[in-house]
């Protein structure tokens, strides 16, 4: 698997591209585009590598990535084994797809403000109306398709601040066109498939075709994390899903995520999430009243 720069050309004389994916699991490698990428995850879940971050992704979520923002959606084994089909709708468009001065117009100021921040990666809290625009776009033609896209961008730019999450605090260095970036894809795949077991920097270095010392320097330079920090981030990210979605004790969550020591798990969780696992579960788990609605 390689890190790939993907050029998205307009098709059928359209000024932007709409693609719908149905796959047993997502197969795109760690990559970036020369266009904006607006994504609806219609059906799927797993881990998203986005710039310098790793997070869970789920059904119904919407993401906006700017040109050059490196990312990869990677399905968990439980989804692949379920036999369900991964489904995503993706819209690609360039800053000047309607002319060089289009987004400089006053009435589009809020849309441009949103787009100008997409180089950090954005997760947008989608409602049913927003998701419906994606489905309508896939079934539309001609001018109607463009009108729907503009309506979608308008609704997204009108979301409240708390409904817009910037994935990276700053523009990640990871999107560089350095040809060696492809070394990371095999390492990410290795970690996501093995984080529940022992994960070693020696094995990761072998996948990257580097000595262990050279790999550790390279990984820290490219991701701004040590390899062990990255593995802990993947494990803690997974633990947040288990804490909210499964009736497991915190000790069982710890071991299920690859940690061998509960005290170390608690320390790492608080360091990364700012809360203890118990505090996180108490703050984020659905309340009984919510479940009855």
UniProtKB/TrEMBL annotation:
Protein keywords: DNA-binding, Transcription, Transcription regulation
Entry-linked InterPro entries: Homeodomain-like_sf (IPR009057), HTH_AraC (IPR018060), HTH_AraC-typ_CS (IPR018062), RmlC-like_jellyroll (IPR014710), RmlC_Cupin_sf (IPR011051), Tscrpt_reg_AraC-type_HTH (IPR020449)
Presence of the UniProt keyword Flavoprotein in the record: no
PROSITE patterns with a match to the protein in the record: HTH_ARAC_FAMILY_1 (PS00041), HTH_ARAC_FAMILY_2 (PS01124)
Superkingdom of origin organism: Bacteria
SMART domains from the UniProt entry: HTH_ARAC
Presence of the UniProt keyword Transcription regulation in the record: yes
Xref: Pfam families: HTH_18
Signal peptide range: none
Segments forming a coiled coil: none
Protein name stated in the entry: AraC family transcriptional regulator
Species, as recorded: Chitinophaga defluvii
Source lineage: Bacteria, Pseudomonadati, Bacteroidota, Chitinophagia, Chitinophagales
């Amino acid at each position: 698997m390689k890190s790939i720069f993907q050029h998205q050309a307009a098709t059928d004389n359209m000024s932007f591209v709409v693609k719908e994916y149905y796959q047993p699991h997502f197969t795109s490698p760690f990559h970036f585009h020369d266009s904006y990428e607006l994504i609806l995850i219609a059906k799927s879940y797993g881990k998203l590598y986005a710039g310098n971050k790793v997070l869970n992704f789920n059904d119904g979520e919407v993401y906006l990535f700017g040109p050059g923002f490196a990312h990869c959606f990677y399905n968990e084994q439980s989804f692949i084994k379920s036999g369900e089909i991964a489904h995503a709708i993706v819209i690609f468009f360039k800053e000047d797809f309607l002319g060089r001065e289009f987004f400089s117009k006053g009435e589009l100021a809020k849309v441009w403000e949103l787009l100008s921040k997409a180089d950090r990666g954005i997760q947008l809290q989608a409602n049913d109306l927003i998701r419906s625009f994606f489905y309508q776009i896939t079934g539309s033609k001609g001018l109607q398709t463009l009108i729907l896209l503009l309506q979608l961008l308008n609704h997204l730019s009108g979301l409240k601040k708390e409904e817009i999450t910037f994935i990276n605090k700053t523009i990640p260095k990871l999107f560089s066109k350095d040809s060696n970036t492809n070394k990371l894809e095999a390492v990410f795949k290795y970690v996501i498939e093995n984080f529940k077991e022992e994960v070693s920097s020696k094995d990761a270095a072998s996948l990257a075709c580097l000595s262990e010392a050279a790999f550790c320097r390279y990984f820290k330079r490219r991701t701004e994390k040590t390899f062990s920090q990255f593995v802990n981030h993947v494990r803690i990210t997974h633990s947040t899903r288990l804490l909210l979605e499964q009736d497991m004790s915190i000790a069982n969550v710890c071991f299920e995520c690859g940690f061998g020591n509960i005290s170390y798990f608690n320390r790492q969780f608080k360091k990364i999430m700012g809360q203890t696992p118990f505090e996180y579960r108490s703050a984020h788990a659905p309340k009984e009243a919510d479940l009855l609605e």
